[in-house]
Amino acid sequence: MSALLLFVMLTACAASPQDLSGKMFTFPQETNTASVKLNVSTHNLNAVTVCLRSFTDLQRAHSLFSLATPSSNNGFLIFKESAADTIDFHVNDHKVQYVALRYELNTWHSVCSTWDADSGLGQLWFNGQPLAKKYLGGSQISKPIVVLGQEQDSYAGSFDTKQSFTGMMADVHMWNYILSPCEIQNYVDNLNFTPGNVLNWKALTFDVTGRVLIEDRQMTCH
């Protein structure tokens, strides 16, 4: 009965925008099915900022944010490598790598990535620390599909258990422009910031597949 109620609750969540303030998605099991598809409010992107928070004990490679297009499986991908302290950032199948990040397990991390088609430059921010800008190319991102919990090896599919995310994820926002450094810092510090105009955690429309729970976010007591 409880499993049925959970299924009904999660199905209802997809029907209209939900305010997930103070909530998190929990991915408790390694599978090639458990995922959350986020409904994107635009079909073409010439600039992107994505911010999210994640908590995991995974030491293997796993996806943090997977956006695919009909022509690019890695349209905008934030991917934690198995090598300690290494994150790959992909735009339209072009990849750059960031190392020496002090990616500790079993703690919340804030990750933001930005990219602009005019310059082709991308940048990763890790726990509020800006890292070097790197060239990723300037082609428009079109007809995006965004999935949390899995890495798309085809458009909306071809998930691999060994690239899946387990743990908790929260505060996922996406903008169709580059956020200023001050706005990114405000996000990291949980201060007032402009919510995403493409994906907004406070008004999120999504579809859940498999065992994914919506829970109150665990906060550190002082």
TrEMBL record:
One family from Pfam that matches here is Pentaxin
Which keywords does the record carry? Calcium, Disulfide bond, Metal-binding, Secreted, Signal
MF terms (GO), sorted A to Z:
metal ion binding
Q: Which domain of life is it from?
A: Eukaryota
Report the SUPFAM superfamilies cross-referenced here. Answer: Concanavalin A-like lectins/glucanases
Q: What is its main location?
A: secreted
Q: How is the cofactor bound?
A: Binds 2 calcium ions per subunit.
Any signal peptide, and if so, which residues?
A: 1-15
The listed locations are: Secreted
Q: Which Gene3D superfamilies match?
A: 2.60.120.200
> Which cofactors is this protein said to need?
Ca(2+)
Q: How does it assemble?
A: Homopentamer. Pentaxin (or pentraxin) have a discoid arrangement of 5 non-covalently bound subunits.
Name used for this protein in its record: Pentraxin family member
Q: Which organism is it from?
A: Fundulus heteroclitus
